[in-house]
UniProtKB/TrEMBL annotation:
Domain tRNA pseudouridylate synthase B C-terminal, first and last residues per copy: 215-257
Active-site positions on this chain: D77
Domain tRNA pseudouridine synthase II TruB subfamily 2 C-terminal positions: 270-325
Family statement drawn from the similarity comment of this UniProt entry: Belongs to the pseudouridine synthase TruB family. Type 1 subfamily.
Keyword annotations: Isomerase, tRNA processing
CDD domains in the cross-refs: PseudoU_synth_EcTruB
This protein's name: tRNA pseudouridine synthase B
Entry keyword annotation includes DNA-binding: no
Catalytic activity: uridine(55) in tRNA = pseudouridine(55) in tRNA
Originating organism: Sphaerisporangium rhizosphaerae
GO MF annotations, alphabetized: tRNA pseudouridine(55) synthase activity
Listed Low complexity bias regions: 21-30
GN (gene name): truB
Domain of life: Bacteria
Region feature Disordered, mapped onto this chain: 1-47
């Protein structure tokens, strides 16, 4: 019978170990943590739940992936659900470029009620009857809000005003003046109009460029109809090539943390440029290559073996590296 506190020897024959902690084959020192290998670099497509901030999701993904090197592309408000693209390890360098891609949303807009945040989480500023608004009028204003438009962001947006986030100034009671910005609403389709007395709710599907605020579309739809309006539901259905069909809930990811490899992520999101071994060596050292005529925006560069080498953009007759991923 072994004495209390003793441990069986790891060596054959029961001989005591003479290896010092830290030597090859030696057990780890007491209290020492074994260093976990870094997770693979890639993207995780999360179906964000309501009530969570994007930062909350990043915090959860850091624990699930086992690394602090995690970020997200394109913030979703706590009330919103749907596609949130999360980058792990080297893929965090892709996020700024992915955030600029086209996005899709399903939304519900309540007419007749104006809030100070343009959504259901704000304080009600005014209420008027909206039952008299016709379907024809709704479609007419929606048509005016489709295509290239000038849009004023919400008071509680993250845009900086004199070095401070607009939402911080607005929540301190300050009236924030934000300039209209050009955005493009590729599609603004009404999918349902529900009426109950003087209340009117409009369901819509929106496809738009990065930087478009769906809350502002809700506000401007209500303003154009003369009754006011705000956003009551928002679900992001797509970010670039990634949609809800590939998104996973946090509970699903807790059981199986699916990380889309970097090469697959870039090939799905950006034009592809395959290069020779010599050009691969050149781009690996930050050099420029001849233009491939693939247009504006980021381009993924792949070596002869299919490995992802870099993300580049065309500048005149050459392409300039935006991010190099080879060692």
């Amino acid at each position: 019978m072994s004495t209390a506190g003793s441990e069986p020897s790891p060596l054959a024959g029961g001989e005591p170990s003479t290896l010092t902690a830290g030597e090859p084959g030696a057990p780890p020192a007491r209290g020492a943590r074994e260093k976990r290998p870094a997770p693979p670099s890639g993207l995780v497509i999360v179906d964000k739940p309501a009530g969570w901030t994007s930062h909350d999701v990043v915090g959860r993904m850091r624990r699930l992936a086992g690394t602090r090197r995690v970020g997200h592309a394109g913030t979703l408000d706590p009330m919103a659900t749907g596609v949130l693209v999360v980058g792990v390890e080297k893929a965090t360098r892709l996020l700024g470029h992915l955030a600029l891609t086209e996005k899709g949303y399903d939304a519900t807009i309540r007419l007749g009620v104006t809030t100070n945040t343009d959504d259901a989480e704000g304080e009600v500023l005014a209420e008027v009857a909206a039952g008299q608004v016709t379907d024809e009028a709704i479609h007419a204003v929606v048509a005016a809000l489709t295509g290239p438009i000038e849009q004023v962001p919400p008071q509680v947006s993250a845009i900086k005003v004199n070095g401070e986030r607009a939402y911080k100034r607005a929540r301190a009671g300050e009236e924030v003046e934000l300039r209209a910005r050009p955005v493009t609403v590729h599609a603004f389709e009404i999918t349902a109009v529900r009426r109950e007395g003087d209340a009117v709710e409009v369901d819509a599907s929106v496809r738009c460029t990065s930087g478009t605020y769906i809350r502002s579309l809700a506000r401007d739809l209500g303003a154009g109809l003369g009754v006011g309006g705000h956003l009551t539901r928002l679900r992001r259905t797509r970010v670039g090539p990634y949609d809800l069909s590939v998104a996973r809930t946090l509970d699903e990811l807790a059981h199986d943390c699916v990380i889309l490899p970097m090469a697959e992520a870039v090939a799905a999101a950006f034009p592809r440029m395959d290069v020779s071994a010599e050009d691969a060596r050149l781009i690996g050292h930050g050099g420029r290559l001849a233009s491939a005529g693939l247009g504006s925006g980021p381009i993924g560069v792949f070596g002869p073996d299919g490995a992802l080498l870099a993300l580049v953009e065309e500048r005149g007759r050459s392409v300039k590296p935006l991010a190099v991923f080879v060692p």
